Amino acid sequence: MLYWAIGYDEHWNRDIGFDVPAICDHPDCEKAIHRGVEHVCGSEPYGGDSGCGLYFCEDHLELKTLDASKESTALCAQCSSGKEPFEPTPDTKEWVDYKETSHYWAGWRTYHQGKVSS
After folding, report:
1. Element (H, E) at 110
2. Distance (Å, rounded) from C-alpha 105 to C-alpha 11?
3. Mean pLDDT per segment of 10 residues, for the chain of length 118 residues?
4. What pLDDT is stored for residue 69 in this prediction?
5. Contact by Cβ (8 Å): 59, 9
6. Cα–Cα distance between 107 and 71 in angstroms, integer?
7. pLDDT of residue 39
8. What SS3 class is residue 13?
């Protein structure tokens, strides 16, 4: 399984990884999480073969056995029922502020002409 502190998901146009603070992507939830693999729908970065790749708290992911391998996959309610994904939550203020001010992100800000979040 892949683990990284910070990566980028081009499908959802946002930063991912266990160093990225976030809010659960369920529309009725405001629980603080991070965008690490333990919170991703599909149990793999970008959602793997069966998930949407959005990030949820433990209350909004359920383990499903999808094939003969007997391995469980964490899925959100939308993916469990074959519906379209929820809209992703925006980046947290904490994350945006960090990207706007941290010297670690200075080169990135220059390259992206100051655009911090979508």
Report:
1. helix 106-111
2. 22
3. 77 94 97 96 91 97 78 92 96 94 90 70
4. 67
5. no
6. 41
7. 96
8. coil
Are the C-beta atoms of residues 94 and 34 closer than 8 Å to each other?
no
In this prediction, residue 1 carries a pLDDT of 47
Taking the model in full, what pTM does it have?
0.89
Residue labelled with tokens 């992206």: 112
> How many angstroms separate the CA atoms of 113 and 42, rounded?
33
pLDDT score recorded for residue 93: 96
Residues in the chain: 118
Token pair of 16, please? 């991912």
Secondary structure class of 20 (helix, strand, coil): strand
In DSSP notation, 47-109 reads GTTTS---B--GGG-EEEE-STT--EEEE-HHHHTTPPPPPPPPPPHHHHHHHHH-GGGHHHH
Q: Round to whole Å and give the CA distance between 93 and 30.
A: 13
What six digits make up the tokens of 58? Answer: 């433990």
Domain ranges, ordered by start, for the chain: 7-87
